[in-house]
Write a structure and sequence with these properties.
The strands form 5 sheets. Strands 10, 11, 14, 15, 16, 17, 18, 19 and 22 form a 9-stranded mixed β-sheet that branches. Strands 8-28-27-26-9-23-25-24 form an 8-stranded mixed β-sheet, with helices on both faces. Strands 1, 2, 3, 4, 5, 6 and 7 form a 7-stranded antiparallel β-sheet that branches. The chain contains 34 helices and 28 strands. With 946 residues, the chain is an alpha+beta fold. 48% of the residues lie in helices and 17% in strands. It has 4 domains: 146 residues, Calcium-transporting ATPase, cytoplasmic transduction domain A, CATH 2.70.150; 150 residues, HAD superfamily/HAD-like (Rossmann fold, 3-Layer(aba) Sandwich); 236 residues, Calcium-transporting ATPase, cytoplasmic domain N; 213 residues, Up-down Bundle (Calcium-transporting ATPase, transmembrane domain). The termini are far apart.
Length: 946
């Protein structure tokens, strides 16, 4: 079936559907028959392959190599315990693989859960009623409605189109938007203008289409099946973690080789040196670092989702914490997006009326109410224009549509009741023109009556009326006449001055102002346009003949000519109250050294008034309007952007892109908000693109890194706070991990140089790295943001996860203090048992085993002190509270139980080569734990003083 060759009626017939859509029962039947409308991940690895991959990564290969050497050595030199060590290393590989697999599986499930928070919805017609459904429930034969910003859910054939432009880049790679048409096409299927493909993006206009292929049957699905999926790329943070761990591994191997060689010079035999080298390597390798980071990011993403900020990629979580500038929209982000018509203005009514939009008139009006509208026909015409130049709808008493259109329609219905007219053409609103125009023929008013009377209008038989609304500066220049006392007359300079004075007055009160105009002199012959009988049709559907088609194209192709010689009807001022939580969020940003720049399409006075209300500006800000920005060189714009308070008004999406680019060139890390199709380039360009979940288009959400589920500016600030916390948490547990490496390595070095008994066995090192410290490390990775984390400026751009501060604090400061305590109990046990310097102890000797047990116990107990010390790099643990992180307490209890098993249970003694030690060894470590906490508290105090 060549569906693109068929007429509209033939398309509906072939797909067994109609202009009123499918019946619900039929849709359910087809869903069972064709399955869900989803692209299956053909290239997604099964779980067993993901698990097996844990045995072949860089660390695993190193450990396999070490285990192989142990087995080989055990074969040639039996009785040295190397066979047992080889088995233990394989056990480490298996334990690490299970741990990593579980972590990554949990992170993957967390991401899938986050995706469910932002479903892909589609508007369809079923049984003649418009409804929103999940895209996965779309079936062949569904009638879908498409408008600007939508993503096409399935392959579909257009049956109506009004200036519909579709970008096929997701499918073809060609980024140019193409004009679509509903007419039959006899050319190539892929070139047909009446076909829209799944995954493509609606750039402008609107249309209706019938789906004919869903899921894997779509062209997008066929490509996905052929390619078998694409390997997911690693983010910058993941690459840095891998780089760091490989560097640490190389250092560990180099250290092992160095001390292996050193052992020969001081007279140790080969097997002692080999055992020592293996111990050094294993002691330095942080096996669980990468999965712990991944889980930390995933948990952070879930916490952010609870705060209404949905992160699409895990690595964006960390990037958020480094943001230095937020470029934010005003409407709906800083304000509540609950528009109400606060004031209206017409020429003969110089006074302004408040609270227009707060009444629902026209359906039920009290005695005396509405008299003002019956007596004032100019206001009546303003409301007629407002009603008909509008895309909001009322369904079962509920208003649907853009918040501004909803406010306008509510006010108009309250004034003049319902109007019915047949829309035959529309020029949609766009951000460059800043206005919208509709063309109607025939209307009737309910209540006071409307000015349009179909065939009786001024245009004569076939006369149609044009209505326009938009920004005052774009509508007023198109007007040559003005309505006064229900009569049109030429507009004078005094009229324009009066309009502008009122306009400025409204803006200074923080109102958003829209102008309305009309023209009743548009004439179209009856044979030019053949219209649909459907009340909902808003498209020019069919052209009666080739000559009629040419007449229609000539009439409507020149928008500028159509929107000329208009009659000015009046103004409406809208109040959009600021969100109550925004002032505190702005104050928090300012305290955190984050600059906020308002970029809005509203007028400058309105923007400045709102900015003062919410505390964004306190003095006289620098205000730049769109036309000024167009003429401004980049060098001047760079200078203006240095201003502490700056507002951009009457901006277009292209302006936003330019501002973001220059900010990034200046070294700023920029978060930018957007909701429209044209915002997508700026969202992609920014370090963090933030789309609106409630009002944003599918295109914007797809381009963004983060989606605000509540469109609230305060949620951005919460997300930045969480991003900072996650970065700090990763540094916390890395410091914690590094802090125990020093007391593991230094005893080994002393063993090699000073010929003391072996202080720590490889098995005991493994028990620490993969046993006792696992849960405390995870607990540090999911710490909540510190109370004052937003009181510090953003971190420097070049500051990585591992820097001199982390290395010094972990390896040197905390590590050396821990080492002192560990060596103290080691030598305490030796000397107490009668050992003297230079005395050799056999490996199975009870005193030697007790000494290694004391070293093992010392590292575990000192790490308990370290976990509290590492909870913050600045704040006192006493301020944070010892019991505020329940997972840390669980980790401490679990490691004490595991340690007691290893030290006192016969099985633990046998596996880990330990021996029971007295209570005095435990107590001897307490002063060193207190010393570590005191030293760390002193360091933090000095840091806070600075």
């Amino acid at each position: 079936m060549n569906i693109h060759n068929l007429s509209k009626d033939a398309v509906l017939k072939s797909l067994l559907t109609s202009a009123t859509g499918l019946a619900e029962a039929e849709a359910v039947k087809r869903l069972h028959e064709y399955g869900l409308n989803e692209i299956k991940e053909a290239g997604k690895s099964p779980l067993y392959k993901k698990f097996m991959a844990q045995f072949t990564h860089f660390f695993a290969v190193l450990l396999w190599f070490a285990a192989g050497l142990c087995f080989l050595s055990g074969y040639f030199q039996p009785g040295e315990g190397l066979l047992s060590l080889g088995i233990a290393i394989i056990g480490v590989i298996i334990i690490n693989a299970i741990f990593t697999f579980i972590q990554e599986y949990r992170a993957e499930k967390a991401i899938e859960a986050l995706k469910e928070l932002l479903p892909f919805n589609v508007k369809v017609i079923r049984e003649g009623q418009s409804q929103d459904i999940r895209a996965e429930n779309v079936v062949p034969g569904d009638l879908i409605l498409l408008s600007e910003g939508d993503k096409v859910p399935a392959d579909a054939r257009l049956i109506e189109a009004n200036r519909l432009m579709v970008n096929n880049a997701p499918l073809t790679g060609e980024s140019d938007a193409r004009l679509r048409s509903h007419e039959a096409f006899n050319g190539d299927y892929f070139e047909s203008p009446n076909i829209v493909f799944a995954g493509t993006l609606v750039v402008s206009g609107m249309g209706r289409a019938v789906t004919y292929a869903t899921g894997m049957s779509t062209e997008f699905g066929k490509i996905a099946h052929l390619t078998g999926g694409v390997q997911e790329r690693l983010g910058p943070l993941q690459k840095e973690i891998i780089r760091v761990t490989r560097i640490v591994a190389v250092i560990a191997m180099a250290t092992g080789v160095f001390f292996f060689s050193l052992g020969f010079f001081i007279g140790r035999d080969f097997w002692q040196n080999f055992l020592f080298a293996i111990g050094i390597i294993i002691a330095n390798v942080p096996e669980g670092l990468l999965p712990t980071v991944t889980l930390s990011l995933a948990m952070g993403s879930q916490r952010m989702a609870k705060k209404k900020a949905l992160i699409k990629t895990l690595t964006s979580v960390e990037t958020l914490g480094s943001v230095t500038v937020i470029c934010t929209d005003k409407t709906g982000t800083l304000t509540q997006n609950r528009m109400e018509v606060e004031r209206v203005w017409t020429l003969e009514r110089q006074e302004q009326r408040q609270g227009v939009g707060r009444r629902e008139e026209g359906v039920e009006r009290k005695e005396g109410e509405g008299e003002i509208f019956r007596k004032n026909n100019s206001l009546n015409m303003l409301m007629t224009t407002a009603c008909l130049c509008n895309n909001a709808t009322v369904e079962n008493g509920n208003y649907k549509g853009d918040p501004t259109d909803v406010a306008i329609l509510r006010a108009a219905r309250g004034a003049i009741g319902d109007l019915k007219a047949e829309r035959i053409y529309e020029i949609p609103f766009d951000s460059e023109r800043k206005r919208m125009t509709t063309v109607y023929e025939g209307s009737r008013g309910k209540g006071q009556g409307a000015r349009i009377k179909g065939q009786g209008s001024r245009g004569g038989e076939g006369g149609v009326t044009l209505f326009t609304k938009g920004a005052v500066e774009t509508v007023l220049p198109l007007c040559t006449r003005i309505l006064e006392d229900n009569e049109e007359r030429p507009i004078s300079d005094d009229d324009r001055s009066s309009i502008m004075q009122t306009y400025h007055s409204m803006m200074d009160e923080g109102l958003r102002v829209i102008a309305f105009a009309f023209k009743e002199t548009v004439t179209v012959r009856k044979d030019v346009i053949a219209r649909s009988g459907s009340d909902e049709a808003i498209f020019i559907e069919e052209i009666a003949s080739p000559s009629a088609r040419n007449d229609k194209e000539e009439l409507f192709s020149d928008k500028n000519n159509l929107e000329s010689n208009l009659t000015f009807a009046g103004l409406m001022g809208f109040e959009d109250p600021p969100r109550p939580e925004v002032p505190d969020a702005i104050k928090k940003c300012q305290g955190a050294g984050i600059k906020i720049i308002m970029i809005t399409g509203d007028a400058s006075r309105t923007a400045a008034a709102i900015a003062k209300q919410i505390g964004l500006v306190k003095n006289t800000p620098v205000v730049i309007e769109g036309h000024e920005l167009n003429a401004m060189p980049d060098s001047v714009l760079r200078e203006r952007l240095l201003s502490p308070e700056i507002i951009f008004a009457r901006m277009m999406p292209a302006h936003k892109m330019r501002i973001v680019s220059i900010l990034e060139d200046e070294g700023e890390r920029v978060a930018v908000t957007g909701d429209g199709v044209n915002d997508a380039p700026a969202l992609k360009k920014a370090n963090i693109g933030i789309a609106m979940g409630m009002t944003g288009t599918d295109v914007a959400r797809e381009a963004a890194d983060m989606v605000l589920l509540d469109d609230n500016f305060a949620s951005i600030v919460n997300a930045i706070e969480e991003g900072r916390a996650i970065f700090e948490n990763i540094r916390k547990f890395m410091t914690y991990i590094f802090a125990h490496l020093t007391p593991e390595v230094i005893p080994y070095i002393m063993f090699a140089i000073f010929k003391i008994p072996l202080p720590l066995t490889v098995m005991q090192i493994l028990a620490i790295d993969l046993g006792t410290e696992t849960i405390p490390a995870l607990a540090l990775g999911i710490e909540k943001p510190e109370a004052n984390i937003m009181e510090y400026p953003p971190r420097p751009e070049k500051q990585g996860l591992i820097d001199r501060v982390v290395l010094f604090r972990g390896y040197i400061f905390l590590g050396l203090i821990s080492t002192i305590g560990v060596l103290f109990v080691y030598f305490h046990v030796l000397f107490q048992g009668g050992w003297q310097w230079g005395m050799d102890l056999p490996s199975g000797n009870l005193l030697a085993r007790q000494a290694t047990t004391a070293t093992f116990l010392g590292i575990v107990i000192m790490q308990i002190a370290n976990v509290f010390a590492c909870r913050s790099s600045r704040e006192s643990v006493f301020r944070l509270g010892f019991f505020s992180n329940k997972l840390i307490l669980l980790g401490i209890v679990s490691e004490i139980i595991l340690t007691a098993f290893i030290v006192y249970h016969p099985w633990g003694n046998k596996v880990f080569d330990t021996a029971p030690v007295g209570l005095n060894v435990w107590l001897a470590l307490v002063p060193f734990c207190l010393m570590l906490l005191f030293a760390e508290e002193l360091r933090k105090w000095v840091l806070r003083r600075k």
